[in-house]
Design a protein that fits this description.
Layout lengths: L3 H24 L10 H33 L8 H13 L13 H15 L6 H12 L12 H17 L8 H28 L14
């Protein structure tokens, strides 16, 4: 099995995107020309990007729970994560916050930091994702796992933003473009999940897979 985040993406979130694609086919009659179905394809882009964003948030939470389950001390966390926890304690306005690191208190702080930072992710491009993944789980440039290249993923997210802010003025999205975006995101989710499976295995003392890699 892949990660729980991947399974949810595949069996839940992606299903809605596929239903949008099926609806377009049902409404599109034979012949040349547009059918006034741009609202459907634009909606598909919005749903697909929401699915991508939710996968990323949930896989980060899942990875952090692996650390919480497998590690006994914050000193075992990757250095970037240790620095992020230390920063959150230093920046706290509560003067007794450092005491919360005692015992298993670091786990509560770590869980809170991950949830808070995942909760404010709203533009899932590489320039936001790479530093976020590094801060929260220590991995360097998750975007390097995307064989399509970060430019393609970033372009898709920009297209989503254009639709969200301009509506139909953003331009017509063809069904072929939506199919292409779907393939792009499914591949990027799969490759991210595979990369994280290997990384998390290497980053914990037990040295065992947290989930299975998925063949493309």
């Amino acid at each position: 099995m892949p990660s729980s985040a991947f399974s949810k993406f595949e069996t839940n979130m992606l299903v809605d995107v596929d239903r949008v694609i099926e609806s377009h086919a049902d409404l599109n009659h034979e012949g040349q020309g547009r059918r006034g179905l741009g609202h459907i394809t634009r909606g598909g882009v919005l749903l697909l990007c929401a699915s991508w964003e939710l996968y990323l948030e949930e896989v980060l939470l899942e990875c952090s729970e692996v650390f919480l389950d497998r590690l006994d001390s914050p000193a075992q966390l990757p250095i970037p994560v240790q620095k992020q926890l230390a920063k959150s304690v230093r920046d706290s306005k509560h003067e007794l916050q450092p005491l919360k690191l005692a015992g298993d208190g670091w786990k509560t702080i770590y869980r809170s930091v991950v949830a808070q930072q995942c909760g404010v992710l709203n533009t899932p491009k590489s320039n936001n994702l790479d530093p976020l993944f590094k801060r929260l789980i220590g991995i360097e440039k998750i975007s390097q796992s995307w064989s399509v290249g970060e430019e393609c993923v970033n372009g898709f997210v920009s297209a989503r933003g254009d639709i969200a802010h301009r509506g139909r003025d953003a331009g017509y999205v063809t069904i072929n473009s939506l199919h292409g975006y779907r393939e792009l995101i499914v591949r990027s989710v799969t490759e991210s999940d595979n990369e994280l499976a290997s990384y998390m295995r290497q980053s914990t003392p037990q040295d065992r897979m947290v989930w299975r890699r998925r063949t493309l």
